[in-house]
Amino acid sequence: MLAERDGDVVRLVLNRPERLNAVNEQLYRELLSELRTADEDSGIRAVVVAGAGRAFCVGADQKAHAAGNRTAAERVEYVELAWRVCEQIQRMGTPVVAQVQGYALGAGAEMAVSADFLVMAEDAQIGFPEVSIGTYVGGGVTKRLPRLIGLRRATDLLVLGERITGTRCAEWGLAHAAVSAAELAAAAAALAHDLAAKAPLPLARMKAALCADGALDAVFRAEAQDLLDVMATADWAEGVAAFAERRDPQFHGR
Fold it and tell me: In this structure, is the dihedral angle defined by the CA atoms of residues 175, 190, 20 and 23, taken in order, positive or negative?
């Protein structure tokens, strides 16, 4: 994880480019720590979350899943870290801009849509492949995504696993803007500095009001439990193995 300060804006960079920034426990812990630190620092008025290299984040590290080394308690810890990161992004008073190039898939998509503003390269792709590969979503997206783009479009993304480009995300209102890849970093930085110039106290209250939902805690917990239940199935193990072996999974409903 890289943290780069530019005046009153901090840029947090997921830094596993050799794995296309696939998330594991260490990356989640580092990101969560940096987000909390930023939110507690009155001198930081906006945060940009970006990915190093060719992608924002391609989701969970499937090699770590396939290794099968996690105990039941470690699975719970992993799932809770994922949810806590998205919860922190959504609930922190400091505004967050997600800068997406390449791919934002699965857990990467969950983090991206948790941000207050999503700035994407026009040819970037966002998607939720979980159901297609035998796993389950998190980050509150079963609640947040329909609120952002409507139930029909959210169903297409979450159930069918369709991927959409940055251009389409902007057309749907999911992304604040879609720009050329060459302009992406500058566009995200400009938006973050614009946010940093706003009055921080009413901005934080506005963010809380827009995100207010008494049921959100229950959504995070329900998704986490659903994911843990799915991770205990043979179909989940098959999906992980098929992904690693680059073949179509064969699911049997058990």
Answer: negative
